[in-house]
Design a protein that fits this description.
With 491 residues, the protein is α/β, with parallel strands linked by helices. It has 15 helices and 13 strands. The strands form two sheets. Strands 1, 2, 3, 4, 5, 6, 7, 8, 11, 12 and 13 form an eleven-stranded mixed beta sheet that branches. The chain has a two-stranded antiparallel sheet with strand order 9-10.
Length: 491
């Protein structure tokens, strides 16, 4: 799941809501490049339109919201089979430019016999996008001189106050930012397009949206592909614990590799000894960071957090990671500093139109309020004790502290429509075992990509399997190579 940023930056701008009107008989399309100067002004293929949906489906005659929808038509219209709707995840990432982006990747061929449709989900970008910044009434930041437990308590209370304030501005709208409601929006887009069935390609949280949509509307699904799959039993605790578990498994493999090369690195002759050495070194760097000079002559600090980040990098970087461990151990400038984001992933990236309030609202409406502060603190301490190297992978903290709105859980079922799940063998963001669990819950077939890059099917040669799936409906199993590939130019 693609995380945007910690919950602290969420200016109140209420969404552009319009009076209740029936869905148009025919959609009016216009060039998407006219929406914003930031859109590629050379793009002559992407066209946009608006689809009206109720803010609250329990009151369909109440307020409505216009969703912005984009489309790139099939390049071989004589072979057209239908429409593929795409979503990049988040929740809170804009999907409006995704059809254009995918047309430049290894899955471009799916546009030959399908229109590819993207959209900004409600609360994002051109679909009534809103934010809600932190305000003085939420209280001060945690006192850096307080004990860790007291700092956690103060942060939890600050988040709870912000959640209560931000939801109070328009509780009807915020309460309807959930995976289930966006799935209902997706079906309204299908209806507006005049399609009896749609195909769907979702990444990260987009896989949750797809799974919920298919559970609700299986008869409206032609073919569905879910890449980098969310867990079927959703909670922020699951979201926090899963990446830690995956990082631990990846480190076990790295430690075994180092142990087999003890004559070169001298970090231990067993994986357990290597783990102990790395853990002790991280603790030492916490207390006494290295003050180093980078190759370009700038001063820098290499602390325990830097080392822990380096230890999450993928297998292709094991030799440099090993050299970093030994250099830091010996007090020398390490070759990796932990600020090399391209080393950990070449996959999905956030967009300029991402929406943090939408992300927080979806996660918290889906899960419900976090447990009390004391229970959350205990869970935090248990993670740190169990994984001193990788507990920092738990990135959601107490996002849903004091969330005042009702829980809207997912209701997942098995369906009969064609379903292709895709997992990435060493990924941390949405670990492979989540895809395996979702496979057991909702069915379909699971393909494993041999890399660790989140949402990267469209960047590897294996993307050809997605093209084949959408063209024929045939799913794939087993595994495929995960190296980056030259984008497809096939229409």
């Amino acid at each position: 799941m693609k995380k945007l940023a910690p919950l602290l930056a969420v200016a109140v701008a209420l969404p552009a809501l319009v009076a209740a009107t029936p869905a148009p008989a025919a959609l009016s399309w216009f060039p998407c490049r006219t929406l914003s100067q930031e859109w590629d002004q050379h793009d002559t293929r992407s066209e946009c339109t608006r689809v009206s949906v109720p803010v609250d489906y329990a009151h369909p005659d109440g307020r409505h919201l216009d969703l912005m929808v984009s489309r790139i038509k099939a390049t071989s219209p004589e072979k057209r089979q239908g429409t593929i709707v795409v979503n990049p995840g988040g929740p809170g990432n804009s999907g409006l430019s995704l059809p254009l982006t995918l047309s430049q990747t290894t899955v471009a061929g799916m546009n030959a016999d399908h229109d590819v449709v993207g959209f900004d989900p409600r609360g994002v970008g051109f679909s009534g996008g809103v934010e809600c910044d932190r305000a003085p009434e939420d209280g001060p930041d945690p006192d850096p001189h307080a004990s860790p437990a007291e700092q956690y308590r103060q942060g939890y209370e600050q988040t709870a106050k912000q959640n209560a304030r931000c939801t109070s501005y328009d509780p009807e709208f915020v309460a309807n930012l959930s995976t289930d409601v966006v799935a209902r929006d997706l079906d309204q887009i299908r209806i507006a397009l005049g399609e009896p069935k749609i195909s769907y390609y979702g990444v990260s949280w987009g896989t949750a949206l797809g799974a919920v949509y298919r559970s609700r509307y299986d008869s409206h699904v032609d073919r569905m592909l879910l890449d980098s799959v969310m867990p079927p039993d959703f909670s922020l605790r699951t979201m926090n614990d899963g990446p830690i578990r995956a990082a631990e498994a990846n480190f076990d493999r790295f430690a075994g590799w180092l142990a087999a090369r003890d004559g070169q690195y001298h970090l231990g002759t067993s994986a357990a000894q290597v783990r102990a050495a790395a853990t002790a070194l991280a603790a030492r760097l916490d207390a006494h960071p290295l003050q180093i000079t980078t190759p370009d002559g700038k001063p820098a600090t290499f602390a325990g957090a830097n080392l822990r980040t380096v230890l999450t990098y993928q297998q292709a970087h094991w030799p440099a990671m090993a050299d970093t461990l030994t250099a830091a151990r010996d007090g020398n400038p390490p070759p990796l500093l932990g600020d090399e984001p391209e080393y950990s992933s070449f996959g999905l990236r956030g967009t300029p139109y991402a929406g943090l309030l939408m992300q927080v609202s979806v996660l918290c409406n889906d899960q419900g309020a976090d447990p009390g502060e004391a229970r959350m603190w205990r869970a935090d301490q248990e993670r740190k004790a169990a994984s001193p190297l990788f507990n920092g992978q738990a990135g959601y903290a107490h996002w849903c502290a004091g969330w005042p709105l009702p829980k809207q859980p997912w209701h997942l079922t098995r369906g009969t429509s064609a379903l292709q799940l895709v997992g990435h063998r060493t990924e941390l963001t949405t670990p492979l075992f989540w895809a395996q669990e979702m496979h057991r819950r909702i069915g379909g077939d699971l393909l494993t990509v041999d890399n660790g890059a989140h949402g990267s099917l469209d960047l590897v040669a294996c993307g050809a399997k997605a093209v084949e799936f959408f063209s024929t409906g045939r799913t794939a199993t087993g595994s495929c190579p995960g190296e980056p590939a030259v984008p497809s130019t096939t229409d």
